[in-house]
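Q: What residues go here?
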């Protein structure tokens, strides 16, 4: 697809600064950039359950969507993270029915939960990846495993996150490099957002 990059899910971790939310880390299939997206607990659970191939007792909302679309002969072509405005990501579910292509507006978290159920590719507009992607330069890094276990979190880190606006642009760029080296994508996303506010 023109003007897009294909993404894959690299990791899922609890978000310490926002209770009940998670950071979903997407990575370029052919590249080194990462796209961290903050998602809700329900959507994180829906993605993790499907990736781990856990079958719930009763169908979850995204499973219901799959049953519904299969019953009415809809197919999912792909998911597109199409835009980012004021730090909010927007997505589209592109599907087909009887030869007719339809685009459905969606939150990225719901779209990705549906993509994993249909084994559909996930794309991101190059413009969005340029604005929100984080370059990862370390050689030979291994993919993160899906996990919902929280990482260690210090109060010093919490204080530094609340006062990012107090740092100079040069210092923020240094902090961004360090966060990327440590694979701390949640922190890197916050620093990236603060840098983007100033540009």
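A:
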């Amino acid at each position: 697809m023109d003007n897009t990059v294909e993404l894959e899910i690299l990791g899922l971790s609890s978000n310490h600064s926002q209770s009940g939310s998670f950071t979903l880390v997407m990575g370029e299939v052919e590249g080194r950039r990462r796209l961290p997206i903050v998602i809700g607990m329900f959507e994180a659970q829906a993605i993790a359950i499907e990736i781990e191939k856990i079958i719930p007792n009763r169908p979850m909302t995204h499973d219901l969507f799959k049953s519904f679309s299969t019953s009415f002969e809809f197919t999912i072509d792909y998911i597109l993270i199409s835009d980012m405005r004021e730090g909010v990501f927007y997505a589209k579910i592109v599907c087909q029915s009887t030869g007719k292509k339809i685009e459905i507006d969606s939150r990225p978290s719901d779209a990705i939960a549906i993509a994993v159920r249909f084994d559909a590719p996930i794309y991101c507009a190059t413009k969005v990846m340029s604005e929100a992607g984080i370059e990862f330069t370390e050689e030979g890094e291994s993919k993160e495993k899906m996990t919902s276990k929280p990482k260690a979190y210090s109060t010093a880190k919490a204080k530094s996150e609340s006062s990012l606006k107090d740092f100079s642009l040069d210092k923020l760029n240094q902090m961004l490099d360090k966060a990327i080296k440590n694979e701390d994508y949640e922190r890197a996303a916050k620093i990236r957002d603060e840098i983007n506010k100033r540009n």
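A: Context that may help when evaluating the design: The longest strand covers residues 74-85. Confidence is low (pLDDT under 50) at residues 139-161.
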